[in-house]
Amino acid sequence: MPLPRRTAVAVISSATVAFAILTGTVVARLPGLLRVDAAISASAHRAATHSTWVEVMAAITATGSTMLLLPVVALGCLLLIVRGHWRQAVFVAVAMTATIALRSLIVAAVGRPRPVDQMVAVSNFSFPSGHTAASAAAATCLALVGATLLRQRGLRILLAVAAGAWAVTVGVSRVALVVHWPSDVLGSWLLVTAIVPAVALLADLALPTVPSGTADPMDTRAPGRSKRQRTETVAGRWRSPCTRRVGSGRGDRGVTKVSPGGLFSEFSGR
Predict the structure, then answer these.
(1) What is the spatial distance between Cα 48 and Cα 55, in angstroms, rounded to a whole number?
(2) Does the N terminus or the C terminus of the chain have fewer Cβ atoms within 10 A?
(3) How far apart are CA 76 and CA 92, in angstroms?
(4) Torsion of CA 225, 230, 231, 237, to 10 degrees
(5) Distance between CA 160 and CA 4 in Å, rounded?
(6) Looking at residues 243-266, what average pLDDT do you find?
(7) Phi/psi at 155 (nearest 5 deg)?
(8) Which residues, including other chains, have CB under 8 Å from residue 265's CB and lie 6 or more apart?
(9) What is the mean pLDDT of residues 78-106?
(10) Phi then psi for 217, rounded to 5 degrees?
């Protein structure tokens, strides 16, 4: 569910500081972090004694590949645009692009070697994890977009939990396959926690909402609408990403008001 803007700023700031500290620790190769990473990676290598386990982890980790995710994300953005949710489409496209681009810059700058006892063939440097970052960004985008489009609270929670569980599983699979250090995965989660909400806030500020004086597409009382159009509007088939319904008391017709923002403010009151 979208966060209030003050809470979002606090989350973004905390994640940014934590990621900076972790990155500094990785670059400095502090013994404490190296010991923890090595111990967990050794345990993961010992656990990967069965081929079935490795195959399952490899199948899970494949779902976080950008070669698979990017076409799916592109299709999702296209569907959002077709359905009229262009603000959400722009948010997802920018958030995914920013995450992948910043991760690529950081991994090249840090240049951390991967674990040596890898269960599958990989290349490039290690920190932060690319599969983990891509899956976490996609999951966060899915949860935020779902929170603005799904009307039922239960469905929004279910979507967020399912997306989060998938992203966590992908990150765990990277450690289980000994292709990343645990701190690589943690770094990706922190990076995404900083980037994706920041893009959502910028989208709220930069992308226009319903202009003043323009008929709101969710307003069932708007002149010139047929009875069928009003019925379809109430049924939720025609929904603006910039509006929300307010009021739930008896006799309240659910007057629609223009929301001052989209991804973080539309459902913050639910």
Answers:
(1) 10
(2) C
(3) 9
(4) 100
(5) 17
(6) 45
(7) -65, -40
(8) 2, 4, 5, 204, 259
(9) 94
(10) -65, -15
Give the span between the Cα atoms of 259 and 181, in whole angstroms.
43
Q: Tokens 């319904």 — which residue?
A: 245
Peptide bond connecting 128 to the previous residue in cis, omega within 30 degrees of 0: yes
CA–CA separation, 174 vs 48, rounded Å? 12
List helix spans (H) across 111-152: 130-149
pTM for the model: 0.77
Residue with tokens 């890898």: 118
Per-residue pLDDT tens over the stretch 182-216: 999 999 999 999 999 999 998 888 876 544 444 43
Return the CATH fold of 5-206: Vanadium-containing Chloroperoxidase; domain 1 (1.20.144)
> How far apart are the C-alpha atoms of 33 and 187, rounded to whole Å?
13
Sequence spans of domains, the chain: 5-206, 211-270
Are 206 and 199 contacting, i.e. CB atoms less than 8 angstroms apart?
A: no
pLDDT (0 to 100) of residue 46: 83
The tokens for 259 are 């929301």
* Identity of the amino acid at 114: R
Q: State which amino acid sits at residue 191.
A: L
Look at residue 263 and give its three-state secondary structure.
coil
To the nearest 10°, report the CA torsion of 139, 144, 149, 152: 90
HEC profile of 209-243 = CCCCCCCCCCCCCCCCCCHHHHHHHHCCCCCCCCE
Q: Cβ distance 226 to 246 under 8 Å?
A: no
